[in-house]
Amino acid sequence: MTGVQTCALPISPALRLAALPITARLAPAKAVPVLANLVRHGDATEQKAAFRALGNLRNPEADTVFADQLRALLAGQVPAAVQLELINAAGRRADPKIKALVAEHEKSVSSSTDPLASFRVALEGGDKERGRRIFESQATLPCIRCHRAGAEGGDAGPNLAGIGAKQSREYLLESIVKPNAKIAPGYDTVVVTLKSGRVVAGIVAQETADTLSLRDTENKVAAVAKSEIAKREGAPSSMPEVYATLLTKQQI
């Protein structure tokens, strides 16, 4: 008679990581060594999941892991892709030594003269699918209203299709949180005051010897005769400088 062999199906990495918080909640004492091992030896995805799970554990051994990792962060030894998860998870701990280490990190960042210092933890480790949803559906001011990265979107801002191959992460980060630092060519805003007193503002959609056409944030174009312009001035970027507070660093 032929025997029937059975084999266990491999567990996908995504399923294994999704199970971490459940395992940590059901058996925290057993979970800490496993999570600590992932922090030390796992890839970025595993490390981030481990930090999130450790942040919710009511186990003093978790604080030991966080203390070690925060000291490594202060020494510049934590990979950029997992720094934000470490800081966020450590911020949920009640242990005074963890709070002190988090405060020490915040002090070092706030004392920097780099205008992007507090946002640099958002440079690595993102999720493109979650980013796409924010780009298209952010509740207050979705990016797609003024930009496109494909067929859909507005034309008040630059087309962002393929932007990652053209610009650095730092450039993109600065464009989000400090949009007036560098305005993309062709998208600097112009404000004109007409002889009638009317004011028209927007980016230059078209300019001829006789006419200036400006596109506003609603993607509407207004054409004015140059002979009617009393004053023409540059203005800040049409992109509002609100995303630094509108979005969390995780969303950025």
Q: What key attributes describe this structure?
A:
5-stranded antiparallel β-sheet; 13% strand; elongated; 10 helices
What do these coordinates show?
The chain has 252 residues and is an alpha+beta fold. 42% of the residues lie in helices and 13% in strands. It contains 10 helices and 5 strands, in the order H-H-H-H-H-H-H-H-H-E-E-E-E-E-H. Strands 4-3-2-1-5 form a 5-stranded antiparallel beta sheet, with no helix packed on it. A hairpin with a 4-residue loop joins strand 1 (189-194) and strand 2. Helix 1 (13-26) runs parallel beside helix 3 (44-55), helix 4 (60-74) crosses helix 5 (83-90) and helix 4 (60-74) packs parallel to helix 6. It is elongated, with a radius of gyration of 25 Å.
Q: Which percent band covers the strand fraction?
A: 5-15%
**Average residue pLDDT:** 89
Which bin fits the share of residues in helices? 40-55%
Major sheet: order of its strands? 4-3-2-1-5
What's a concise summary of this model?
By secondary structure, the chain is α+β, with helices and mostly antiparallel strands.
